[in-house]
Automatic annotation (TrEMBL):
Membrane topology: Multi-pass membrane protein
A Pfam family assignment: BPD_transp_1
Lineage: Bacteria, Pseudomonadati, Pseudomonadota, Alphaproteobacteria, Rhodobacterales
Keyword Zinc-finger annotated: no
Localization annotation: Cell membrane
Cell division recorded as keyword: no
Main location: membrane
Transmembrane segments: 28-46, 58-79, 85-107, 119-142, 148-167, 200-224, 244-266
Protein name listed in UniProt: ABC transporter permease
Length: 278
């Protein structure tokens, strides 16, 4: 019970510290410290609960055991990261979002595509990934190409819908003013409509950044070479090596958060004029 007592004392101390910090004048340092303390508190409580109640590591390993396995398995984790994130998720993200962006411009130019493609897109977006992944794995093989194809399917329509809506963000007076200046379609697109659409486009990119990694990992459950995050998770669960599973989850969480953060930083630089960035 000493572990449980230590956990309670630590939790109360961190709670008091966070309450004190929350009353201070807000700044970037405090905005970083508060969630850091919160995350550290969760890890310490996790450690104390598992040790205090003597929970089997097969069910829930301690954070220190996960950290030790992480440190001892960096070469394996790196190979899995490259296979899943760089080759599968990132390539599929670039292809899917790029194709969706170009399609959105075509949809904006064609009323036929607006009436026909978007309803089909809503239907395809509703298809379960666990149903599509095995089919795409059979079509494109067991290597990263099939995982990229799954990611393309997952990110294409969310990006398409956000971009199409963004192209409608400029109002009629602004578009009429561009016509008065004699601007053609592509001049109005580059000078007015795309800048106005940037908040919508980046919203789609941030949504797709999380979908891409999820899609690549799930696709690996249905067939992959002997590497990749999804492959490693499924095989290590079968071997009851839950510390390795949590190490892979940690890598996925870090990679996904960093990817999302990079897109958010680019958004802040590009859409500095938007009220949401002030």
């Amino acid at each position: 019970m000493i572990w449980i007592l230590c956990g309670i004392i630590f939790w109360l101390a961190m709670w008091a510290m966070n309450l004190r910090l929350s009353k201070a004048k807000p700044n970037k340092l405090i905005g970083f410290i508060i969630p850091t303390i919160f995350g550290l508190t969760i890890l310490v409580l996790w450690e104390c609960v598992v040790r205090g109640f003597e929970i089997s590591p097969v069910l829930l390993p301690t954070p220190t055991a996960i950290a030790a396995r992480f440190g001892n398995s960096i070469p394996i984790l790196w190979v899995d990261f490259v296979q899943t994130f760089v080759k599968g998720a990132l390539s599929g993200f670039i292809l899917g979002c790029g194709a969706a962006f170009l399609t959105a411009i075509a949809v904006d130019r064609s009323s036929f595509l607006q009436a026909g493609l978007l309803p089909v897109g809503n239907f395809v977006a509703a298809l379960p990934i666990v149903g599509m992944a095995p089919i795409l794995v059979m079509w494109f093989g067991f290597d990263w190409q099939s995982k990229a194809a799954v990611v393309v399917v997952m990110v294409f329509f969310p990006m398409l819908v956000n971009t199409v809506e963004g192209l409608k963000a400029s109002d009629h007076m602004q578009r009429d003013l561009m016509k008065t200046y004699g601007a053609g379609y592509f001049q109005a697109l580059t000078k007015l409509r795309l800048p106005a659409a940037m908040p919508f486009i980046f919203n789609g990119l941030k949504i797709c950044s999380t979908l891409a990694l999820i899609g690549a990992i799930v696709a690996e459950f249905f067939g992959s070479p002997i590497k990749g995050m999804g492959f490693r998770i499924s095989t290590e669960v079968g071997r009851l090596a839950l510390d390795m599973v949590w190490a892979e989850i940690t890598v996925a969480a870090i990679a996904g958060s960093a990817f999302y953060g990079v897109i958010a930083l680019i958004e802040k630089a590009v859409t500095f004029w938007h009220p949401s960035q002030r």
